[in-house]
Amino acid sequence: MSIIITRRSLVAGAAVGAGALLTGCDKIIQHPEARKILFMGEEMQRGLQRALTDRNALVPEFSAAQMSPIFRSNGTRNPGTPAYTEMLVNNFADYRLRVGGLVDRPLSLSLPQLRQMPARAQITRHDCVEGWSAIAKWQGPKLATLLQAAGIRDTARYIVFTCADLYRGTPYYESIDLIDAFHPQTILAWALNDQILDVAHGAPVRLRVERQLGYKHAKYIMAIDAVASLAGIGKGKGGYWEDNVDYDWYAGI
């Protein structure tokens, strides 16, 4: 009998073995050995997954009956900045999602425009780096749709998401490569469980990149930029947690 150990199964096993959960994906894993096991061999893990799986291979999707009764919020619960609060008070009427960087046709999209785009609905499992998981339904346009509309250039290699919440006074950010950006289950979700996304879960728009762990699913997205390199963005490691607490940039599951 062969056994395949994935990060998804490791996370699930850690949750059972630990017997207790922490409070959100924004906390650092407390046990140093757990961190060492979970985050070891980033390049090897990415290389193996890219080599052994179809770039469009889908993660499991579930039925409505399998949805979790509660989906915890991870990371920031409310950006709380004056700019975000003003948008929230106006029900995001002034919100604009900017799509730029290495594109031929930069975009500035309102929330109604995003909601009018062809949407994908998917019921998937969110796996937090701390060990908790939950199944929920997400709805929104594919990220690929926006990138194609903007005319992403051949020189682009990564997609960077800049968010409304601030960490240490600077906007939170995350990034993924083009393989995950164009994956059919990578969407910009504006609805959770058939309800308009609320503040705690990332309103007005959050990323769902289903083949990666929860901390890659950026919330409160304000801008999307196609770039050739991650150098010079933050500390150059591709995301806030990657820059500051040594989380892997590639969190494939």
Automatic annotation (TrEMBL):
* Coiled-coil annotated residue ranges, if any: none
Q: Which Gene3D superfamilies match?
A: Oxidoreductase, molybdopterin-binding domain
Q: Where is the signal peptide?
A: none
Return the Pfam families for the record: Oxidored_molyb
Q: Which ranges carry the Oxidoreductase molybdopterin-binding domain?
A: 92-226
Q: Which domain of life is it from?
A: Bacteria
Question: Which InterPro entries does this chain map to?
Answer: OxRdtase_Mopterin-bd_dom (IPR000572), OxRdtase_Mopterin-bd_sf (IPR036374)
This protein is called what?
DMSO/TMAO reductase YedYZ molybdopterin-dependent catalytic subunit
Q: Identify the species of origin.
A: Sphingomonas aerolata
